[in-house]
Amino acid sequence: MRVIQTYTFNLSSKIPYSDYPAIAHRFLEEQNLTAHRFLYYFDELPYMKSHEETLSTGSCAKAVKDCPALGKIRFFNGSDYGLYSIYFLSNIDIDTGCTEADVLPHMKKIHRRYGFRESDLYYYDIDFFHNVIPYERDISRVKSLAEDWQCDLDLAWRLQDQPYGSGIRLHRYSTGGNYISLSIDILHNGIIHDATPYFEAMKALLPNIHPKVSMQIYLTDAEKQKIASWDKQIKPVIEKSRSFFAERFPTKDKLIKFFPDYTIAAKLKKLAKQYGFSYHYEAMGLYILDKRTPRGHVLRLLVDSGPSHSNTEYLLNIQGIGFCHVLGRSVQTPTNQAEIDSCSEEMLSVVSEFEKTIVPELDAFYEETPNWFVPSALW
Questions:
Q1: Half-sphere CA count of 56, side-chain side, radius 13 A
Q2: For residues 126 and 123, what is the distance between their CA atoms, to the nearest angstrom?
Q3: Under 8 Å CB-to-CB from 241, ≥6 apart: which residues?
């Protein structure tokens, strides 16, 4: 098993992408760390150009002209998968021989001249906790896509998101959404380590930015088989759970032709405290309430009200290492403050009843979930 804790710092355009490597280097130097692997990924869309025009005058072509070490321009035929096609440069899956020293002199051109859609630099195989765990690639999404479209497997799809391990990712997107992420393997020789000091060190270099914390768990084949066995056994209880919510808090189908005016945060905070849940606001009208079961599994209630309030969706799931199951889902259409308050009260009341009646059955499955487990914001 690999357990990787990631801290993502979303950055505004005030910090130019050309400054990102200096931040990464300062972090490494101050923490006396070394990155043993340098990776890169740059891509572009054709934008009505022919294949020949893109290869000769596109973003990748401009970059390769200035930095031949970036290697050959490559092509992903997205039409085979119902997606857009892209041209890209990368050493994630092949050794181009390109080094950081080759790339850094061209950093200002990357976001000012070349016109890349997506740009990523990676400093991987960092020796956190005095140990190097080599990075790997997650191709599970690629396999699922090929199966869905019944196409040959093309590992170039979302190549930029495949690497995982201990490292720093410097990400820029042409229309925004830039970030620096710090990922740390925290499981070493069966012991979970505290990554807080490293996190605080990066936070000091990026002040006034509240990072998003997430956890990725990668299981061995033997561990996956064990989880799959539990998944089969728990199915009847999952179906029982969904029927429970469908009967007690059914979805309401109603078309709202205006944007209701109400707030939901204050009521959810009060209800979370009343029923023993933690409360967290994610973004864009998404609220998260968490509670641990007696065996450490996480009951997660997601409430999505969106900026328009055209509807409010409640979804309850249960999570642990290697599993996440949707237990109940209900879409409501409140039109005023009294109605949204009533909906939230009713949902939490039903969840409370569910905890007393069915959660003990759910809790009998899987091994205990340790307290270091961080649930994912799956909708």
A1: 5
A2: 7
A3: 327, 328, 354, 358, 362
pLDDT of residue 170 exceeding 90: yes
- The reported pLDDT for the residue numbered 148 is 83
The rounded Cα 299 to chain-centroid distance in angstroms is 19
Q: What percent of the chain has pLDDT over 70?
A: 99
Q: pLDDT band at 256, cuts 50/70/90?
A: confident
Question: Distance between CA atoms of 257 and 269, rounded to whole angstroms?
Answer: 29
Residues whose CB falls within 8 Å of the CB of residue 335, separated by 6 or more in sequence, listed in order: 256, 260
Alpha helices in the chain (DSSP H): 20-30, 51-57, 59-66, 100-103, 107-112, 140-149, 196-205, 221-248, 265-275, 337-357, 359-362
pLDDT score of 258 more than 80: no
DSSP string for residues in 44-55: E--TT--HHHHH
Q: Which of 375, 252, 287, 268 is nearest to 325 (CA)?
A: 375
What is the structure's pLDDT at 141?
86
pLDDT at residue 171 above 80?
yes
Q: How many CB atoms lie within 10 A of CB 209?
A: 16
Distances (CA, A) of 217 to 138, 163, 173, 226: 11, 14, 26, 15
Average pLDDT of the chain is 94
Task: Return the SS3 of 183.
Answer: strand
DSSP string, 91-116: -SSS-----HHHHGGGHHHHHHTS--
pTM recorded for the entire structure: 0.90
CB contact set of 2 (below 8 Å; sequence gap of 6+): 133, 136, 164, 165, 185, 187, 216, 217, 218
